[in-house]
């Protein structure tokens, strides 16, 4: 079975909030979904063009000072595709994790401890960052999306806390 490129849904989802340029989509993702779903310029811009070609997004050129900027918005066809994807079953994905890949090839127990310590430092930094985001989100005015985004964030925090606990145990 052919795998569908989920980049299209990440971008269509961003367009649900309103018209955006490719740069604005990238910025929105860096502040939100990048913690669990990353897209690069090399995937965003070609996908926007493809979605426009398919009639799922439309673009218009606007002038900002001396610069021209291409702004994309979602079409009804794009909304329908997004809704179909959103309501479909999730596919089973294999996550990529360099730490686990390296751990898989460890031979020396001391090398494993080094990997655990390095991972622990990184995970603790991410955990602290998530907690700051949580504090900021909790300070915003209530909205339907605030609540669900806090749930997504808390999911990530719980995963990190579990991994921190496991890493500390393995280091001992």
Describe the protein.
This protein has 172 residues and is mainly alpha-helical. Strands 1-2 form a two-stranded antiparallel ribbon. A hairpin with a 2-residue loop joins strand 1 and strand 2. The longest helix has 31 residues. The chain is elongated and about 60 Å long. The mean pLDDT is 92.
Percentage beta strand = 5-15%
Q: Roughly how much helix do the residues carry, as a percent range? A: 55-70%
Q: Could you list the spans in which at least 5 consecutive residues all have pLDDT below 50?
A: none
Instruction: Please state how the strands of the largest beta sheet are arranged side by side.
Output: 1-2
Alpha carbon gap, first and last residue: 45 Å
Calculate Rg over CA atoms.
20 Å
Give the averaged pLDDT, no decimals. 92
Q: What is the topological layout?
A:
Layout: H1 7-16, H2 22-31, H3 41-53, E1 57-64, E2 67-74, H4 76-87, H5 98-104, H6 109-139, H7 144-171
List keywords for this structure.
single chain; 172 residues; mainly alpha; two-stranded antiparallel ribbon; 7 helices; 2 strands; 65% helix; 9% strand
Short description:
The protein is mainly α and 172 residues long. It is elongated, with a radius of gyration of 20 Å. Helix content is 65%, strand content 9%.
């Amino acid at each position: 079975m052919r795998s569908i490129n989920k980049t299209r849904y990440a971008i269509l989802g961003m367009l649900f909030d309103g018209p955006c340029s490719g740069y604005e989509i990238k910025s929105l993702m860096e502040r939100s979904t990048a913690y669990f779903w990353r897209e690069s310029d090399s995937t965003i811009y070609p996908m926007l063009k493809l979605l426009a070609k398919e009639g799922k997004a439309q673009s218009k050129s606007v002038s900002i000072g001396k610069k021209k900027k291409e702004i994309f918005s979602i079409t009804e066809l794009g909304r329908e595709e997004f809704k179909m994807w959103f309501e479909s079953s999730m596919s089973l994905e294999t996550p990529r994790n360099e730490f686990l890949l390296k751990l898989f090839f460890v031979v020396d127990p001391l090398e494993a401890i080094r990997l655990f310590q390095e991972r622990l430092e990184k995970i603790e930094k991410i955990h602290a960052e998530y907690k700051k985001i949580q504090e900021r989100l909790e300070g915003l005015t209530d909205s339907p999306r605030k609540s669900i985004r806090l749930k997504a964030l808390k999911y990530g925090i719980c995963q990190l806390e579990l991994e921190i606990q496991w890493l500390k145990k393995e280091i001992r």
